[in-house]
Design brief:
The protein is α/β, with parallel strands linked by helices. The protein has 16 helices and 15 strands. An 8-stranded mixed barrel has the order 6-7-9-10-11-12-13-14, surrounded by 4 helices.
Length: about 400
């Protein structure tokens, strides 16, 4: 930790001196201080930046918010520790801004300065790690012919993300996800290929291959007296295809499977530009007996409007609310309101992205029951799902 460079941005001279003295007691050698954002920028420009900024927000002249924006744009800081007496809602919004700027947020010391907390936060910082954090490596799929070969060889597979009742632990269904079992790179997620599939007009081909695999799984389970509802994601480009609904109805009739075993998930962004034909298809799916879910509920700006207009039977609460449940006080109010809304409209609510026992406990307190996420099960292929169901 001795090699870390740090700037203390604090407009009150006495507070600034106290903070710098406390940091020296922690063994830090490279410490500088500034009383406003303009002074701090000039100082960092001359010395070439620092690892960490210990930042107050309120000050005369250039405040902490403007300083962080300029410092990130010029590459003069890598990480931020807040030390400012502001309301929790404003503090949380600032944290979100820091992360959007590409800076690492280490924590919040508040005021007065807590040397023990500062020691804990600074020790968690690794100066050897490059910031902002790099994105996971994406395997480049080079050509259209590679995609077509993958389709011909049946390499695109249906994987399943189970949904559970958090109170009883009962399996309530599964969302069908696309995976590419590539002969060279192994199992690839949609991040590696979906954009290329869409740009090359192959989204329908992918959907129908996965749809048939989903029906096959349902038939296999029906033979042994088991049943599972499967949810399929529909892309915006598919919504206006009149033949899609007709084909779904025909395949259900041929397979002898009930329509209420299928649920179709549509994102709000996909509905924003949906023409009349798309809305007709959604209504027809419901008339057939299929479920209809609004995916990523709350992530956009017109969720409530579309929820009133269209015959949804389920809403899926966006995972961002779960991730911020502990740190952002208002997220709990949003979740509680979504529970009440779903109950009033007599539709189900599924919470996405549950990854910890703490999140599960809080969600149950807020009235949620259905959820999916890594805490319960990770996506799995059809064979693994069958084993999972058999074991339960």
């Amino acid at each position: 930790m001795k090699n870390i460079s740090i700037l203390v941005l604090e407009d009150e001279p006495f507070q600034r001196l106290l903070a710098m003295a406390a940091l020296k007691k922690l063994g830090l050698k490279d410490i500088c201080g500034a009383g406003d954002g303009t002074e701090a920028l000039a100082m960092l420009q001359e010395r070439g930046g620092v690892d960490i900024v210990l930042c107050d927000l309120r000050m005369a002249g250039m405040d902490g918010l403007a300083f962080l924006r300029h410092a990130s744009q010029r590459g003069l800081a890598r990480a931020v520790v807040l030390s400012s007496a502001v309301e929790p809602v404003l503090r949380q919004a600032t944290i979100s801004m820091i992360r959007c700027l590409g800076l690492e947020f280490l924590g919040d010391l508040g005021k007065p300065f807590d040397i023990g907390r500062a020691n804990q936060l600074l020790r968690a910082f690794d100066p050897a790690v490059e910031l902002p954090p790099g994105k996971p490596e994406v395997v480049e799929i080079p050509s259209l012919s590679d995609l077509l070969d993958g389709f011909e060889r049946g390499e695109f597979e249906a994987w399943f993300q189970p949904k559970f009742d958090m109170r009883s632990g009962a399996l309530q269904g599964a969302e069908l996800l696309a995976r590419w079992r590539h002969p060279q790179y192994g199992v690839l997620s949609p991040a590696h290929f979906l954009a290329q599939v869409e740009s090359n007009g192959l989204i329908d081909r992918l959907f129908w291959q996965l749809f048939e695999q989903g029906l096959t799984l349902q038939r296999d389970l029906a033979i042994v007296g088991q049943r599972i509802e499967l949810a399929f994601n529909i892309q915006p480009s598919q919504l206006s295809d009149q033949k899609m609904v007709e084909r779904i109805a025909r395949r259900l009739q041929e397979s002898g499977l009930p329509a209420d075993g299928l649920n179709f998930e549509v994102t709000e962004t996909g509905l924003l530009r949906a023409p009349a034909a798309s809305l007709e298809n959604l209504v027809r799916l419901r008339l057939m007996g299929c479920g209809l879910a609004m995916d990523d509920f709350g992530a956009g700006y017109s969720s409530l409007d579309r929820l009133c207009e269209l015959p949804f039977s389920q809403i899926k609460l966006d995972s961002s609310f779960v991730r911020k449940l502990q740190s952002h006080p208002r997220c709990a109010a949003v979740v509680r309101s979504a529970v009440a809304l779903a109950s009033t409209m007599d539709i189900s609510l599924v919470v996405e992205g549950v990854e910890s026992k703490e999140q599960k406990t809080r969600l149950l307190e807020l009235g949620c029951s259905l959820a999916q996420g890594f805490l319960f099960a990770r996506p799995m292929d059809g064979a693994a799902l069958k084993r999972h169901i058999a074991q339960r």
